[in-house]
Amino acid sequence: MQILVTGGLGFIGSHTALLLKEAGHDVVIVDNLSNSKLDVLQRIKKISNVDYKFYKADVTDEAKMKEIFARNKFDGIIHFAGLKAVSESISKPLEYYYNNVVSTLCLIKCALEYNVERFVFSSSATVYGENDSPLKEDMKLGLTTNPYGETKVINEKILRDVSVAYPHMAISLLRYFNPIGAHPSGLLGEAPNGLPNNLMPFITQVASNKIKSLKVFGNDYETVDGTGVRDYIHVMDLAKGHIKALENIKIGVNVYNLGTGKGTSVLELINAFEKINNIKIPYEIVERRKGDVAACFADATKAYKELGWKAELTIEDMVRDAWNFEKDYK
Ligand SMILES: NC(=O)c1ccc[n+]([C@@H]2O[C@H](COP(=O)([O-])OP(=O)(O)OC[C@H]3O[C@@H](n4cnc5c(N)ncnc54)[C@H](O)[C@@H]3O)[C@@H](O)[C@H]2O)c1
Fold first, then answer.
1. What separation in Å is there between the alpha carbon of 10 and the centre of ligand 1?
2. Phi, psi of 181 (to 5 degrees)
3. Which residues lie closer than 8 Å to 12 by C-beta, 6 or more apart?
4. Catalytic residue among 148, 176, 232, 256
5. What is the pLDDT of residues 6-15, one digit of tens each?
6. Fewer Cβ atoms within 10 Å of its own Cβ: the N or the C terminal residue of the chain?
7. Can you give the chain as a three-state secondary structure string?
8. The architecture CATH gives domain 2-180+232-260+299-311
C-alpha cells in the first residue's frame, strides 16, 4: 500500500515510517517541521537504505494537501501530525485547537475527495480522564483537563461522525499510553525542539547534563511509592502496532489501546534508568502537577485479540535505547 504519514518526521511517526517500509509499504511523509528536524529524514534513509518521498507542508493547508493527494495515489493515511505538549496547550489553546482539529478536517476532506478509505488516527490515553485503570476502550470518556486532551476527544468525535455519514470508511483510533525508548541503532529517538515535556526525555537530558535536575511532581499519590504510575511503551512496539492496525483495519470506527497493560512509577523508571545505564539522576520532589492522575495504564487485551499485537519490549529495553539515542545526539 502507499501510505501517507503526517507528522512522519516526529518521534512516533519516524519509527512507524521506517517499519512501514520494512513491511513492504510505500511511504509518503508530510511534516511542517514545527517539532522535528529535516535531519530525521536522512536518518531514516540511512537506517533503511531506501528513499522516502517527503513534502514539507502544513496539514492545515487544504490547498497544499489537495495538491499532494492529487500527485499520489494513497491507500491509507496515518495521521500523527499534531501539537502534543499538555502544559503549552493551556497557555496556547487556540493554536492547539486550530492545528489539531483543522488538520484532521483537512485530511478527512482530502481522503473523501480522493477515495482513500483507510484512516488511522493518533489518539491518547488522556481521553479517559480520571477513569480508574486499567482503562478499557469501551469506557465512557472522562473529563479532559487541558486543551490538548480535548483536541483528541474532538477528533475522535469528528471521525465517528464521518463514519456515520460515510460508512465505507475504515477508521482506527489508536489510544497511546506513554511511548518512550528509541530505535536500537541510536539514530532515531525523541528529540523535541525546545524543553522536553515528557518524563523520559527529561531524564535523558539530565543524564547528559543539558538540564540540572529532574522535577518529580508529587510523591503522595496512592501508588506503590507515592509517585505517578504510567504505562510506558517502547516506541518500536508502538510503531509495530500501527502496521497491525493498518493491515487489519475494518470498516467503521475501531478503537484500540496501545499500551503494555503494566504500570511503572516515576521512581521505578528513574531507578531502572540508573541501574541499566549506570548514571545517577538527581531529582527533587515538587508539588503535584494540576491535571495529573495517580495511575494510568491500559487494558491491552483488545489489540491482542483483534490485531494480534502486543508490546514485547521491557522497561530495561526502553531506558537503554532512550539513553543510547540521547548520548550521541547532536
Ligand atoms: N508522544 C506521546 O507521549 C503521545 C501520547 C499520546 C498521543 N500522542 C500523539 O501522537 C502523535 C505523534 O506524537 P509524537 O510524540 O511523535 O509527537 P512529535 O511532536 O514528535 O511529532 C509530531 C510531528 O507532527 C508535526 N506537525 C505538527 N503539526 C503539524 C501540521 N499542522 N502539519 C504538518 N506537520 C505537523 C511536527 O513537526 C512533528 O514532526 C501526536 O498526534 C500526539 O498527540 C503522542
1. 6
2. 85, -170
3. 80, 122, 176, 179, 235, 238, 239
4. 148
5. 999 999 999 9
6. C
7. CEEEEECCCCHHHHHHHHHHHHCCCEEEEEECCCCCCCHHHHHHHHHHCCCCEEEECCCCCHHHHHHHHHHCCCCEEEECCCCCCHHHHHHCHHHHHHHHHHHHHHHHHHHHHCCCCEEEEEEEHHHHCCCCCCECCCCCCCCCCCHHHHHHHHHHHHHHHHHHHCCCCEEEEEEECEEECCCCCCCCCCCCCCCCCCHHHHHHHHHCCCCCCEEEECCCCCCCCCCCEECEEEHHHHHHHHHHHHHCCCCEEEEEEECCCCCEEHHHHHHHHHHHHCCCCCEEEECCCCCCCCEECECCHHHHHHHCCCCCCCHHHHHHHHHHHHHHCC
8. 3-Layer(aba) Sandwich (3.40)
Q: What pTM was computed for the model?
A: 0.97
Provide the grid cell at 101. 482539529
Pick from 38, 84, 159 the residue to mutate for probing ligand 1's pocket: most ligand atoms within 8 Å of its CB: 84
Q: Rounded to the nearest whole angstrom, what is the distance from the C-alpha of residue 122 to the centroid of ligand 1? A: 8
Binding pocket residue ranges, ligand 1, CB within 6 Å = 6-7, 9-13, 30-36, 58-60, 80-84, 99, 103, 122, 124, 176, 178-179, 198
The set of residues, in sequence order, having a beta carbon less than 8 Å from that of 81 and lying 6+ positions away, is 6, 7, 10, 13, 30, 31, 32, 59, 103
Question: Which tens digit of pLDDT belongs to each residue from 127-161?
Answer: 999 899 999 999 999 888 899 999 999 999 999 99
Q: Give the Å distance between the CA of 220 and the centre of ligand 1.
A: 31
